[in-house]
């Protein structure tokens, strides 16, 4: 009997707690969705999340810059799984966002669906060409980058450094999935290496993964065993494994997307694409009323949307100077038609 | 298995306390039948309480955070005084919660059924993926078939594929004694890489128009499941929800009202005794695993036909529905009703803690994403702990009944 009372009181207690929570919840009619006069921008990340140290993070940096410099109101929503994409985008649109930005090609189908449903709202998608969206919505703009230019700069620098160190001219590159942005980087990297020295050889492969560092490390170790002196990691978090392999074997590592020189003294440089710049300028266009859907904006070295990050202090001054010159040549168009596809 | 000290008759569920539990599955099976619904409730409440403390420790108000989470699940739709835009949002949120709970019920059943046969099916994820692959393949081929037939074909073939895939693990256990935990984990990777290959660039199921994107073709429009609540284009709630509830009923009926279910449970209680009693234990292992896989494969199919409509290489790699199913089954104590409610709880949690509900004033976005994981992790942790709680409970009971504590096997 005593036992029963105790059990009942436990259940009662749980019920009280639950009711308390529910009651509190009932009064939660807040003005979260109220529309404000200022331009508002809303960012939806893909499943990589905000802490990916790569493009989702950079996109958020761009949004924050827009908030502080342009005075727009900003909101960012992380997607945890594929089923979050449409509800998150809807939440932006119905929350009154003037521009809704989807980060990454994974969001393409969801953007396509939502943009077609809300023709009066504005949308942008990073890393996906607008004309590839199934219904080619006229209110959507693709934000693209010339990753090949960043890759070209990185490949050139790597070969020049190897020449100065009198090491064999063999480079390695580890891609994640074989998707256009990844291939752009690698194609540019190969072209840059050959431009620095036609004898340079580039080994490359794909880990089929953007997350698992062990996969990229394995691939990189294989390339190093074949003589690769530099590892270019184009695979998000997975790529950190490739950089680790380079560190262990005394080679150079080249980071991707964000400036990753901070990873250690084995880092040569990073091939970067300034997703933050892309996001910032897109929001600026919306605020200034110059935003147009139907088409793509491509951010290049010239537009300040691509390039390479900080260079290792171990690299000789004359090579760094050569690098600056090369960057100028890309800017003024004397180096053009860098390939975008891997042979 | 060989040193089961109980005499010949199969132990009754309530009387199981005297048998020394041999392994985790048996010990857990024993305990879960003695605690009822109270421990599950206590487990969940404790997790929320500690989660609240974590929120408090980060300098935020746990009550407002939980209020946002509650509204995020869409449960405020049930309150008659919520109206206007709030009501629209609430309805949408509730649809998403139920949409997420639907596959969780099925992957929960996939774990639960094997559990009732004394096996730990870690392979729900792989079986789900196989269901996804077959669902996409059937759904995106043969566009000429009339809708209902196309749907039935896709669902049946995907479920059978899941059943076959899990059956392999059952067969290995039944014939050569390979432990199902090992074989199902390995099969998960088989499914992972088959999926990565099939939807990757140049793969057999990759998109035929966008050749540079690792994503499948869309499934035929007439093979979409009917959306009965919400906007059919914007991911409303589809009838797969009722299919999942049907599966819960089927689970109960098969387990409790058929010879097959009786045999499965007997093997789960004590395989040696069941064998002695004339039950074909090897066959039970294979059928139980196959039925488990059937549920998981079905989950994959209805996700595809219900809201996904296409699947990308990264979707295959990032999905963890099968793994969450393990937690669902554990919290639901492997019963149909329990799995239903715990799937709802997890669906609500996953949806409610989504960043779109936790406004930046309550929580900075980076923290909000992690709060989801913290609360989910706590619940899973406490599910583990509730075995301990139950153990202590049992022990206290026995002490009160006047038995010597020395008779209790220590060393949980």
Provide an overview of this structure.
The complex is a heterodimer of chains A (343) and B (412). Chain A has helices at 2-26, 55-70, 85-94, 108-117, 147-165, 180-196, 213-225, 236-248, 275-288, 317-332; strands at 40-44, 73-77, 99-103, 122-126, 140-145, 170-175, 201-206, 230-234, 252-257, 267-273, 295-299, 306-308. With 343 residues, chain A is of the alpha/beta class. Chain A has 2 domains: 40-145 and 276-299, 3-Layer(aba) Sandwich (Rossmann fold), CATH 3.40.50.2300; 151-272 and 313-332, Rossmann fold, CATH 3.40.50. Chain A starts with a helix and ends in an 11-residue tail after the last helix. Residues 19-36 of chain A have low confidence and may be disordered. Chain B has a domain at 84-249 and 280-329. A two-stranded antiparallel sheet of chain B has the order 1-2. In chain B, helix 1 crosses helix 2 (62-73) and helix 12 crosses helix 13 (336-352). The longest helix of chain B has 36 residues, at 365-400. Chain B is globular, with a radius of gyration of 22 Å. The chains are: A alpha/beta (343), B mainly alpha (412). At the A-B interface, helix 1, strand 2, helix 3 and helix 4 of A face helix 1, helix 2, helix 3, helix 11 and helix 14 of B.
Q: What labels describe this entry?
A:
heterodimer; A: 343 residues; alpha/beta; Rossmann fold; 2 domains; 6-stranded parallel sheet; 6-stranded mixed sheet; 10 helices; 45% helix; B: mainly alpha; 14 helices; 2 strands; disordered C terminus
Instruction: Using the CA coordinates, give the radius of gyration of chain B.
Output: 22 Å
In percent terms, what proportion of residues of chain B is strand? Answer: under 5%
The percent of residues in helical segments of chain B reads 55-70%
Most residues in contact: chain pair = A-B, 53 and 59 residues
CATH architecture annotation name of the largest domain in chain A: 3-Layer(aba) Sandwich
E-strand count of chain A: 12
